[in-house]
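User: Assemble these into one structure.

Assistant: Restating your components, then the assembled model:
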Amino acid sequence: MNWTWFHKLGSPKWFYEISGRWLPWLGWSAALLLAVGVVWGLAFAPQDYQQGNSFRIIYIHVPAAFLAQSVYVMLAVAGVVGLVWKMKLADVALQQAAPIGAWMTFIALLTGAVWGKPTWGAWWVWDARLTSMLILLFLYFGIIALGNAISNRDSAAKACAVLALVGVVNIPIIKYSVEWWNTLHQPATFKITEKPAMPMEMWLPLLVMVLGFYCFFAAVLLMRMRLEVLRRESRSSWVKSEIKGLVGGSR
Amino acid sequence: MNPVRKKRLYIVLAILAGVGIAVALALSALQQNINLFYTPTQIARGEAPEGTRIRAGGLVEEGSVKRDRDSLSVDFRVTDGAETVTIRFQGILPDLFREGQGIVALGRVNEEGIMVADEVLAKHDENYMPPEVTQALEQSGMMKHYEDGKGYSK
């Protein structure tokens, strides 16, 4: 296997150039997928036979919950890369992805509560799925707080990487909580490996929304990372010429 | 990979394995407390603590719902296929409450073995379908078959 791309990631300049090329593609596909998914899911997908229209919140809830967990796994991978290979870009990715992941977790919890009230009869229940998701939110808060509290960048990177790594144990607990224990939350509808538990005309908009959320996350992450790379490398000559080009171009 | 990185990678993996084992042990020790509810079988076997508020969960048995004529009181039986528990509830039931639906009730078991619930939550499953599909399934007599198929094993 060719690992040159991985070693190239060690160079912030290379990352800045390549991400600039990817960004428009990701941004436009996110906008397109989300627009199609929202209209299709909220207006055209059929109602559910039991829950009526209130089930449509699934088109926000499930993609947000997917992202919340995937982003955390990404943080842990970035943490390992940062700890083992001492790659600076891994720390940039970790710090910049954490707030997005926290927002996704918050959206998943909020839409879940709004959905729970009419269907279950309660905003919140201390069942295993809901509680482990709340713990995920606090893990994100911990990483954000730790990153900001330590002023030495190398120690902050190391501490955040360790916390991200330790917290990843929570991810399988979230995923399998509905199977290991009795919970009020139903098992997963959107499965990659098995036949989905809903008909195609309900499932396809959900797929579009999930892909749209991933593209949205990637686009926002790249934008945040590019800004952070410029900030951290502000003394290097390539950043100075880049900024000069940007400022000169806008005048 | 150079030896320094290899060593660091092993340390990282060891930390992860250690934390994973610790959490797995803690969770398996807390198994009973993490379960949101007891099934009727567990209550019949005496696994649920007596005299305290517990949650019972299962399917509302077909034809078991008896509403009181002049109050909001309602009696119904909850089953997991093997055992049943009778639940008495006074109040407004959630919209999704119906016979055959999964529910979770919070309350206390009295001397007669009836659970007096002060909260009933409806549980729905992971299957969604349009109303037309449900009607078609009912007309062809497949609904029962479908409902049985998805089961309530937990």
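The two ends of chain A are 46 Å apart (CA to CA).
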